[in-house]
Design goal:
mainly alpha
């Protein structure tokens, strides 16, 4: 039944779904799991310590977060094809720019451009476009897009290792710039051909939807009232949701950033650790597919409160078990939590705040997500520097995840869950 529903969605909107998948996959070039592979080579090239590289990465990430509320809301004001073209071009420039860096400050700017274009805006385009133009099938659409992120996590780190060994880190990122420019840009624009008609249909349906009384709009899961960003910032429920909605980024970024440190502490080889990323990605895909179906049947508001519990279970296992086999249930639980969370988050915002100003609202959220992704590695690194074992430090994140879950339950209950 679930496979048939996804097949029907792909048959109805093949090009638009493929567009979302490709944009999500391409965002990998600005994500931590990809840039982190280049860390060792970059540190050697610039004769930096782990702390210096971590500081540069955090500075570039925080600069990106500060700019996202401005650049992200433009998706509400510019046509999707034009906005996509600007973002993809920026990513190509970012990939080229970092290869030209000769000083620490230029490296900070390079990291900032990669994080802004890749992690921030490419992810923003993928999820916002699916959330805006799908209603009854929003959950399945976002689940399919989540597969693009999972494919990037499974394939690109290995490809980066091979490329760096063959031609070095600078030529590797230069190759990425060429790939983005010559393949991703024309392909994404081709897949968006005819989007003007889709947008006109969306505007027509949205106007009808907004003119209906709330009791007459039960056919749509999106909120009848489209909130502006300034109104969302005044809503107390938003602040109850944020710790939980940004928790997945905080924890997963911290863990992937420190996975090799965890392997050293447990006595595992680095190759063994990274070879299991494929299992993580597989679980992201499976859980996203199931979650998309659940969201369309029930709602994202009902699914969201349970998203952090598998991640808390994964971290608890890492604390309790040292044997090598624990990596498999750990990757399974981490992947399940990430897949459920990514899919539910993308569908949640339209349900809570409507779709007309979705870009501005989601750019605010992505800002907080990027801040969280900058904080996570520092959080664990600081505790380890204070003398705690890595497997002890992760328990503080378990506590955070449980508290964030409680706040989400309160906040979503106020939306009528």
């Amino acid at each position: 039944m679930a496979i048939a529903a996804y097949r029907a969605l792909l048959a109805s909107h093949p090009r638009f779904i493929l567009f979302g998948l490709i944009i999500a996959f391409t965002s990998s070039f600005g994500q931590t799991y990809f840039i982190g592979i280049f860390g060792h080579a970059i540190r050697q090239d610039f004769a930096m310590s782990h702390t210096q590289w971590g500081g540069i990465y955090m500075a570039g990430t925080l600069l990106s977060a500060l700019l996202l509320p401005i650049t992200g809301k433009w998706i509400d004001q510019i046509s999707l094809p034009r906005y996509t073209m600007m973002v993809v071009l920026l990513l190509a420039v970012a990939c080229w720019f970092i290869t030209q860096a000769q000083t620490i400050w230029w490296l900070v700017i390079g990291v900032f451009l990669l994080r802004q274009s890749g992690q921030g805006l490419m992810s923003h385009v993928a999820f916002t476009s699916m959330g805006r133009y799908f209603d009854a099938q929003r959950g399945k659409a976002t689940a399919l897009v989540a597969m693009g992120f999972a494919a990037g996590e499974a394939i690109l780190p290995i490809a980066a290792v091979v490329a760096i060994a063959a031609v070095g880190w600078r030529y590797s990122y230069m190759g990425v710039a060429v790939l983005v420019l010559v393949l991703v840009l024309p392909l994404s624009l081709w897949l968006l051909r005819g989007h003007q008609q889709r947008h006109q249909n969306y505007e027509r349906e949205l106007q009808k939807h907004e003119q209906q009384a709330p009791e007459m709009a039960a056919s749509s899961r999106a909120n009848v009232v489209s909130w502006r960003r300034r109104d969302v910032l005044k809503d107390p429920r938003f602040y109850l949701l944020i710790p939980g909605l940004s928790a997945t980024s905080l924890v997963s970024t911290a863990m992937f950033f420190h996975h090799l440190n965890l392997a050293d502490e447990k006595g595992w080889s680095h190759a063994f650790m990274t070879s299991n990323y494929l299992l993580y990605s597989l679980m992201v895909v499976i859980s996203a597919v199931i979650t998309g179906q659940l969201i369309d049947r029930f709602s994202a508001r009902l699914v969201m409160p349970f998203t952090l519990l598998p991640i808390a279970g994964a971290l608890s296992l890492i604390n309790l078990v040292d044997s090598y086999w624990v990596i498999w249930p750990y990757m399974v639980l981490l992947g399940v939590g990430s897949g459920v969370s990514q899919t539910a988050q993308a569908a949640l915002w339209p349900e809570c705040y409507g779709v007309r100003f979705l870009g501005a609202i989601k750019s605010l959220f992505w800002t907080l997500v990027v801040f969280a992704s900058a904080l996570g590695p520092v959080w664990l690194g600081y505790l380890v520097d204070q003398g705690y074992a890595f497997q002890q430090a992760v328990l503080t994140m378990v506590v955070y995840l449980l508290l964030a879950t409680a706040l989400m339950l309160v906040g979503l209950r106020k939306f009528g869950v």
